[in-house]
Amino acid sequence: MDTISSLGSVDYRHDEWKVDVTVAGSQKGFMLPPGLGFNAVSEKARAVAKTNKMPRSYWTGKRCSSPTRPASFPTRRPPTCSTPARGDRDAAGGGTRPGVRAAQAPRGGDACRGHSLGLEVLCLDPSEYSPVLTAVLMPPGHDADKFRKIVLDNYNMSLGSGLSKVAGKVFRIGHLGECNELTLMGALSGVEMGLAAAGVPHRAGGVDARCSRWKSGDDEFSRAPESVKT
Questions:
Q1: Superfamily of domain 96-216
Q2: CA triplet 213, 203, 174: central angle to 5 degrees?
Q3: What's the CA angle centered on 59, arms 37 and 16, to 5 degrees?
Q4: pTM above the 0.85 mark?
Q5: pLDDT tens-digit profile of 190-206?
Q6: Where are the domains of the chain?
């Protein structure tokens, strides 16, 4: 299971769901610097790996699973097979802080999908909405990558790009990690200012409307956008 974006942001249970291999990273839900990869591997998967004859290009995990490898510094921490990263324990917080972030991520997604700016989102099925990321469709005739560059150049905010078939058609807003109302308001404000600077049709004042909903405690949003006004 690839949990690089979801671990620490949404409910995930490696043992209870009987997952054999979980792959995770440091730079998303745990909000650590990029570069740390960590896995959870079941006994079944470890047994299969011992008899697997397929070629490996780099890492097999055998060295890391050796009981005779030297302990990492400081010695009270579990040994690692490479330079140990610091901060992972604090980020995990014994399972407490990821739980807090998991509660925040869906709310951030609701805000991005509230259509406060009059734009459609890529996902059509509400049951498949991602709690950690929202892809927003650009209106016909407008390039998402040009819009993203305007936002980056003018407001020093980096939006995610569309991949493969939707390259240039969508931009992505991440709402995971320590993402609260104030953080997301900054992101949405940058999007609205960028839309205006790029001449993209949108509903002006959408961020103010979103802020008013939050202040009133109203977290209900319409799934379908109203008529777009420039």
A1: Aspartate Aminotransferase, domain 1 (3.90.1150.10)
A2: 65
A3: 50
A4: no
A5: 999 999 999 999 888 87
A6: 21-85, 96-216
